[in-house]
Amino acid sequence: MNAGSDQDRRIRILLAEDQAMIREALATLLDLEPDMRVVGQVGRGDQVADAVTALGGVDVALLDIEMPGLDGLSAAAELRRRHPETKVVVLTTFGRPGFLRRAMEAGAAAFMVKDAPAARLAEAIRRVLAGERVIDPDLAAAALADGVNPLTGRERDVLAASADGSVNAEIADKLCLSEGTVRNYLSACIQKTGARNRAEAVRIAQEKGWL
Amino acid sequence: MNAGSDQDRRIRILLAEDQAMIREALATLLDLEPDMRVVGQVGRGDQVADAVTALGGVDVALLDIEMPGLDGLSAAAELRRRHPETKVVVLTTFGRPGFLRRAMEAGAAAFMVKDAPAARLAEAIRRVLAGERVIDPDLAAAALADGVNPLTGRERDVLAASADGSVNAEIADKLCLSEGTVRNYLSACIQKTGARNRAEAVRIAQEKGWL
DNA sequence: AACCTCGTATGACAACCGTCATGCCCACAG
DNA sequence: CTGTGGGCATGACGGTTGTCATACGAGGTT
Q: CA nearest B130: which of B32, B59, B64, B53?
């Protein structure tokens, strides 16, 4: 198993992805590259930074966004604090402009979507190690075109709390607000997203990665 | 590429999955098994049956549920009609009881969730070829416990049409119904799901795989 | 100091939504 | 041939939601 022994010069990779089958398949794929080696795998975002510490550092952390415990973007931010030398590649199912923006803010060096060809993944890892940043041009354009998240912090809170179908009274309760205030915030969210009701506002905000 | 030549006895597999990176990674994984060979890959549900025809038949079709064009469950049903000898393995991100139920109705021989260990996939394929059915026991129990979909066909239509945040008038328009009828159906959906409004009804129905 | 944005709140009004009773037609099972 | 269940419709009622005007304090900018 430890073929390269103490002189192994391959790129050391930590893989974080919650779906075991996908995680193992990606690990197999990367291990087939002659210059790469997956030295650790985790299935939760909150295990990322600890795993890097336990491994004595890695060259690249490949992080899925959709993970239990801590999402990949927050995990990237934590990693940046605790292991600033580690390069972060964010991998996601959904190419949402807001996700790209947040990934960049969290210090990610690359942003990949899962429907890109597999060969691009290894390529991105090599380019990141060479100091480049790797971002899908279409996605970058979309992120710029969409502009910044127009929702204020509190508006996001209220909209997110409404996403599961809670009624005003419950949202007010959860966030310790008056019911009228909840209505005001939701009204603002609806106008800013251009929606016609809270449900559509939730959908639009999620599509753009604003929640 | 054609290592086994005309005497190849390996299991011939068609892989249908929309995310190219995942699809290629799974293909790599399965091709590493000495007795398996991925002979075709497609990224859309509506290409499944045609691909099997073009390949002159396959032993196993591995179908993701979440696909553009035609979802994996409908693709499985089409495959059953056009190539009844092909074994179908359904693979999905979401282990929803309703999905399992529909997969079985569509004639699937196995139902796998993507967070199972990768080794189980190859194992499932071999067992399916041996004539077994392979289903996660937890999921089977959940499917039985949940009972059948209580929504009538039209109730499903209306609830599905409301999922994107459309208002009653739009739903009525889309389905050529009166606005009052839309309200009646949605009211029924809300009661049958035990929800407090349409948004929650949509969430619950989706969780159970009723849409 | 004047101004802006954000968070919070209230009250009023109109529009929309959820419920219920009731009716009709059609198909299918008993 | 008489229930029973699904599909469709109307009307009425009360509750929820969306909008708007207005207000106040805290924090930051000009």
A: B59
